[in-house]
Amino acid sequence: MMVLYSGTTCPFSQRCRFVLFEKGMDFEIRDIDLYNKPEDIAVMNPYAQVPILAERDLILYESNIINEYIDERFPHPQLMPADPVMRARTRLFLFNFEKELFSHVRALEDRTQSAGQELDVARRNIRDRLAQLAPILVKNKYMLGDEFSMLDVALAPLLWRLDHYEIELPKSAAPIQKYGERVFSRPAYIEALTPSEKVMRR
Ligand SMILES: N[C@@H](CCC(=O)N[C@@H](CS)C(=O)NCC(=O)O)C(=O)O
User: Nearest C-alpha to atom 20 of ligand 1 is from which residue?
Assistant: First the structure.
C-alpha cells in the first residue's frame, strides 16, 4: 500500500493528498510534525521535506513528481493529458507555477523566519501572477478547459490559502476566485483537507 508522509498544513502535501483521494484507491497518510521531524524523513528525502511517498522499495519526494507517479500507476481519472503536446505544455505550466508562485509560498510558510519586506514582495508577486492567469479562466472551467487536471491540483492549495497568507486579489481576478470555488467543491478536495486546513478559509 502507498504511504504518504504529509504535513497537516503543508500546501505541497495537500496536492498529493488531493490526488490520492481523486483516485479513490487504498493508501495511508502519516502526519508528520514538521517541528519535530522523525529521523527517517531525512533518510528518505535528502532535503528532509514532506511530502514523501513510499511504496514497497520506491521512495519519492517532490509533490509534482509524486503526483505524476500516482497518476501513471492509477490512470483513472487521468490527471495528465494523454496527448504528448498537451502533456508537455502541462509540465511547462507546472514548472512555471513552482518558479513564479510557489517559490514565494515558501517565504509565506516560513513567516517567523522571513522579514516583513520579504513577505510583502512574496504577496505582491503571487497576486500579480494570479491576476495574469485570470483571463484563461474567463471561458475555461478548469486550467486546461473542461477537464480537471494536474494543473488544478497544483494550484488549489495556494488559492485556498489566500486569506491565510493575507493576499488580496484585484477585482480583475474574480474568475480565479470562482474557479477556486469550483475546485474546492470537488468531493476529493474536501476529503483531503486536514482539520488545520479546514480552518484556514472562512
Ligand atoms: N518542492 C517541494 C516543497 C516541499 C516543502 O517545502 N515542504 C515543507 C512543508 S510545506 C517541509 O517539509 N518543510 C520542512 C523543512 O524544510 O524542514 C515539494 O513540492 O514537495
Answer: 62
Q: Which of 54, 53, 59, 3 is nearest to 28 (CA)?
A: 3
Residue at grid coordinates 500500500? 1
**Cα 10 to ligand 1 centre (Å):** 7
188 φ/ψ angles, rounded to the nearest 5 degrees: -65, -35
Question: Residue 115: what pLDDT?
Answer: 82
Closest CA to 49 of 80, 110, 5, 17: 5
Per residue in 33-66, pLDDT (tens digit) is 999 999 999 999 999 999 999 999 999 999 999 9
Classify residue 1 as exposed, middle or buried by CB count within 10 Å of its CB (0-12, 13-18, 19+).
exposed
Give the pLDDT confidence score for residue 33 in this predicted structure: 95
Does one domain contain both 89 and 180?
yes
CB-ligand 1 contact for 32 (6 Å cutoff): no
The CATH number linked to 36 is 3.40.30.10
Q: What angle do CA 139, 143, 145 make, to 5 degrees?
A: 55
Give the whole-angstrom CA distance, residue 167 versus residue 105: 11
* Positions of the chain with pLDDT lower than 70, given as ranges: none
Model confidence, pTM: 0.97
Range of 68's domain? Answer: 2-78+192-198
